[in-house]
Design goal:
CATH architecture of the largest domain: 3-Layer(aba) Sandwich
Shape: globular
CATH superfamily of the largest domain: Glycogen Phosphorylase B
CATH topology of the largest domain: Rossmann fold
Number of domains: 3
Largest sheet: 7 strands, parallel
Structural class: alpha/beta
Radius of gyration: 29 Å
Number of helices: 20
Number of strands: 13
Bound molecules: 2-acetamido-2-deoxy-beta-D-glucopyranose
Strand content: 5-15%
Length: 533
Amino acid sequence: MEQNIVIKFVLFTFIMVLTCCSAANIFCVFPTASYSHQQPMLALSHALAAKGHNLTVITANPNKVPMKNHREIDMNFLYRLFQEDIEKVEKETGFTSQKRQGLFNLIKSGPAVSEYIAYHIFNSLQIQNLIREVNGTNYDLMIVEPFIISSLLGFSDMIGNPPIVGISTILSMSAIDIEYGNPVIPSYIAETFGFYSDHMSLWERFINLWIVLYQNLYITNMYMRPSQEKIMRQYFGNVNRNLWDLESNKSLLIVSGDLSTSYPKPLQPNTVYVGPMHIKTPPPSLPKDLQELMDSAEDGIIYFSLGSNMKGKSVPEEKREAFLKAFKQFPKTTVLWKWEANTDLPGRPDNVVTRKWLPQQSILAHPKTKVFISQVGLQSFQEAVYYGVPILGIPMFGDQDFNAKTLSNAGAGLKVEFQDINYDKVYENLKQLLTNTSYKKSMMRLSSITKDKPMSAVDTAVWWVEYVLRHKGAPHLKPAALDLTWYQYYMVDIFVILMFVILMTLLTIYFIAIIVIRKLFSTKINSKKIKRN
Ligand SMILES: *[C@@H]1O[C@H](CO)[C@@H](O)[C@H](O)[C@H]1NC(C)=O
Ligand SMILES: *[C@@H]1O[C@H](CO)[C@@H](O)[C@H](O)[C@H]1NC(C)=O
Ligand SMILES: *[C@@H]1O[C@H](CO)[C@@H](O)[C@H](O)[C@H]1NC(C)=O
Ligand SMILES: *[C@@H]1O[C@H](CO)[C@@H](O)[C@H](O)[C@H]1NC(C)=O
């Protein structure tokens, strides 16, 4: 009897292993040349490869050593566009990652930047060969970054139109939410590229609405999508469906974030906030010299890095001097500064240590790290939250203003405007962050929120990807909102009919009334006339 149960159990396990985890061929498109945005996406593709799936990954950050089940199409050359050719890119597209950027300028430069990058991607030998190679094959799933280069969705036509999963490394913005049928409600859902929180004044709500309309109705509809559609058809030939159909027929959106760095909002079942996928637990151990340096820091560590896009050396001289002068006032605190130039930092005080590259997560995880001076890109913000390190935020572009606002609202850090940076500002803010314990407390509160999950972020994302595979694209997740036109969705058609009916009723009443009044009037006049006669 007992033996029977054991045999049954073994058989059951065997069948489960066979059926639930059959390896899938997965095609990933992660072209954005940004180290921080690559990390969450690669965390997912690596995890899928480790589970035995067969991945083909277009990535700007290929692994140094080849990985099993993880074939990479190397797009690393794209970094050159934004690092060596910064001036050229700025001249051609109006976009730069090295200066403070206005919001509308950023949105406006979107189509030109996307076009510029798309042409460089499609004209590369790697992608030309890949198109030829995969044309006519059948993949089980495609995973894409739902960001700027949407023409790459044309790959789905080459690989048998498999279900598509989007993976977002910024908190969902209206342009992405629209593709999944998520409600866009500008009265309390602040645009990720804006500067507001979930509580907005009348004027802020007005601007927030304006951002949503400008981004979606004007820039995306009139410039971005048509230009990407043209590029898609140029390189993939006669793709069966138009770009909007491809964009709005994705099975799932995985967002690499959670409520520790965002606000509650309504989401369709096809959208999951899994948490920051790039957090490594435990973090890789520090190199020996850094470990010793950090352990021996008398009054803790200030970690200074403006992220992977902005270079420390792009900080103008007078602002650099303001930082150095402020750092000098905390001689017992060691400052770790990510400084990429080959020359030493001019006027560097003794307590400032520079390195070309620093292992950010391991530094933030070190108990001596007291303050993180950051641009507040989402991935850096999430790491600081996870390890509970207060931030001095200096937002520059993209979603950084939004993140800095979330940060200061939560009381987990302070924000300085880049153009306002001077010695007094830096000194006062650092002093607050180093001496006032309320910032650390707030960060620890956010930290406990982000850590409180039934499964790790990557495991959750893997589960959802396999869910989509198991259910053949999981069409039951797709809300009918996506099958409606905008006037059906906003019930404009119903209101128009209703207005028409009301108008007709009112008109009918009006004319009947006139006829009746006329009748009454004319009988009165007639009767008067009769009397006079
Ligand atoms: C894995 O994908 C590659 C293409 O990148 C393909 O050549 C190979 O046949 C696939 N392996 C399996 C087991 O499907
Ligand atoms: C939408 O995607 C599914 C795969 O998930 C596919 O079967 C279907 O044909 C697509 N529909 C359209 C209209 O493209
Ligand atoms: C894909 O293959 C088909 C059939 O061989 C061919 O007609 C088409 O031009 C190819 N598409 C591209 C983009 O190379
Ligand atoms: C510490 O910071 C909090 C939040 O900004 C503030 O309310 C409080 O007054 C500060 N305490 C001191 C001693 O500065």
